[in-house]
Amino acid sequence: MPTIVAFDGAHFLLLEKLRADEVIVQQGDPGDAFFIILTGHVSVHYIPSKNLEENLSAGEERRDRLTVEQFYGPSVKLLGKGDSFGELALLKGEPRNATVTAAGTESCVFVALGPEAFMKVFGQLQNFVEKEKLPEVIEQKMRILNHKSGPMA
After folding, report:
1. With left for phi above 0 and alpha for psi between -120 and 50, is residue 86 left, alpha or beta?
2. From CA 137, how far away is CA 1, in angstroms rounded?
């Protein structure tokens, strides 16, 4: 059961993901949280949107038959303790650009900040992020997604 912790009016949600391959966020979904990994690992997967839509519309039977990599695309990055994800969808107001799943055999524990908590904690850095780092971060993450997924038609 998730634990909710209040900090200066901002709510932090502590999540525990116990099974490998469990989806934490799905490509195309709205960005509703920013995650910081406390323990464990996650795998970032990317697949062209039309392929993901085809897999999703085929339903659970296809999901049960395929591996995570076949259904959500190849793993383009492995993240672990201290790493974070989900900031681009919150900052840009766009859908998630990748699927993130729990990886490995150990439990994954996260702190998840909703949009209000994220802005409360990081809002003062927003001008710096927008002017100095955001374009660079976005470009770097998109380069990783595009390079690792290879050319797909």
Report:
1. left
2. 33
Beta bridge partners of 79: 42
Residue 41 Cα distances to 83, 108, 109, 110, angstroms: 9, 6, 9, 10
Reported as half-sphere exposure (CB side, CA atoms, 13 A), residue 132 has a value of 5
Kindly report the length of the chain.
153
Q: 91 falls in which pLDDT band (50, 70, 90)? A: confident
Burial class (CB in 10 A: 0-12, 13-18, 19+), 33: buried
- Give which of 90, 88, 98 is closest to 117, Cα–Cα: 90
Q: What is the mean pLDDT of residues 97-111?
A: 88
Alpha-carbon separation of residue 65 from 32, 62, 79, 102, 109 (angstroms): 29, 5, 26, 19, 27
| Amino acid type, 99 | T
How many CA atoms does the CB half-sphere of 148 hold within 13 Å? 19
pTM, 2 dp: 0.76
